[in-house]
Amino acid sequence: MNETLNTPLFFPDAALTTETLVAGKVSRKIRAHGGGLMIVEIFLQQGAVGDVHHHPHEQICYCLEGEFEFLLDGRRHLLKAGDSVYVPPSVPHGATCLVEGRLLDIFTPQREDFLGKKP
């Protein structure tokens, strides 16, 4: 039997929980994860700030809706619905929500810290 089939493969929205990160400003829902990949939806209210940080994971951030000032390695970019950005491992990045919106973050390897596990 394929070892991958021992882990969840389907992630119905009704079975997922939304985690509040900053009350009234930022929350997230882990959409799917497994193996070395994870996808997370982030919900942000206008004025919410994702502080500049870095991690060893590769990340792609896709803007589903809203507008964000995205800071990547000291450079600022306007991110609007339909735009995406690649964040290389260990590169400082952060975002400020200009217009209420949602981001879809894809990580590899998956963020064990988001799953409550130590990396």
Automatic annotation (TrEMBL):
Query: Which Pfam families does this one have?
Result: Cupin_2
Where on the tree of life does the source sit, at the highest rank?
A: Bacteria
Q: Which InterPro entries match?
A: Bacilysin_H2HPP_isomerase, Cupin_2, KdgF, RmlC-like_jellyroll, RmlC_Cupin_sf
| Gene3D superfamilies per the UniProt record, alphabetical | Jelly Rolls (2.60.120.10)
The residue ranges of the Cupin type-2 domain are 44-100
Q: Which residues form a coiled coil?
A: none
Which PANTHER family would you find in this protein's record? H2HPP ISOMERASE
Q: What protein is this chain from? A: Cupin domain-containing protein
